[in-house]
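@channel sequence for tomorrow's demo:
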Amino acid sequence: MSLHKFIRRNVVIQYNHFQLAISCRKLSIIPSVYDGDQDPGPKFFSSGVQALLKRLTRPDFSKVFRKRTNSNRSVLKTPEYKFLTDEELQSEFSKANKTAARLLQMPPVVKVHQPINEVLSKDPALVGYDNTKYLFTDITFGVPNEHRLIVERDPDGTLQMSDHDTRKRLNQGRKVREPMMFADEEKLTGLLEAEKYEFILDRACIQYEPDEASYQKVTSITYQHVDMKTNFKLLRSTRHFGPLAFYLTWHQSMDNLMLELLQTGVIREAVLLMGLRQAIHEDIAFASDLNALVKQVLPTPVQAAKPDSLSEDDIQLDNKCIDCVVKYISNNSAMKSQQELALQGFREDYQQMVELSRGLRKAHGEA
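structure tokens (generated this afternoon):
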């Protein structure tokens, strides 16, 4: 479960004989990393969970391919306009889907690495030879950094495998010093309050490896801040939404996300989120009915906005989703009253859409 609290501090500024007290509030969130007995990797990389996370990301081309400001990127090119046949247009759509899938590739979720404490040998004859530590690394071309042999000889003659921090300094092609946005808590808090979530997570992916405790602390704090502010839309259609949904579900903190889905009327994604919980924790009593419904929902188009009309197949499927959500709220939810109220509002709006769609079909003689 996520833990957060507010810490209030007073900053006093003195000028001549006048004093000005400024009260500032700093958010303190206790990070939760994947360092328990259970490894999240097998669950995260399973085909079923990956399918659910990709669908919950709700890819939106207008956001995936949006313009970004980047000092290291060349000037944006002038767009090209082409006349295409239907076959060429489908080919371009296929290319865009592949590019979007690459841009939405999720950062991996793995367990925090264990410390390396492997002593290879001890040579007392080397005691006093030097007062510095010697590092030796294999420079064979083509050897992956994670498998490269790196050892260290201590002044006391001990030869041992290097720890993760030493390996990182020797292998990395990035800045050795930690960026101030991560080293200074106030700067990170400022970015969080400014809702620069995607910037923080992108920078964390550049600076750290997924199995580093520092990476998981930064991402955990960011995910909890998103959940606390219910600003899920800021990460939706980005590569970080899948790990966010997985984190909240893994730590049994998915109720705010479920509430947001019900309030925005995306009932089918609410069922997929329930399917994600079942895939991770296997604690839903009606699992067989839920899994069958998830298989029906996954092939359907993404619900980016309210549909103009509903077919009878859509109505039948959505009613199954509503019944499934009712069972979930009754048996598994920690926010029963809020979610029941949101579901009630959705059902009232949905019933109006059903009556309107059926009325239009009847007016056109299609009923």
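heads up for whoever presents: The CA atoms of residues 288 and 294 lie 10 Å apart.
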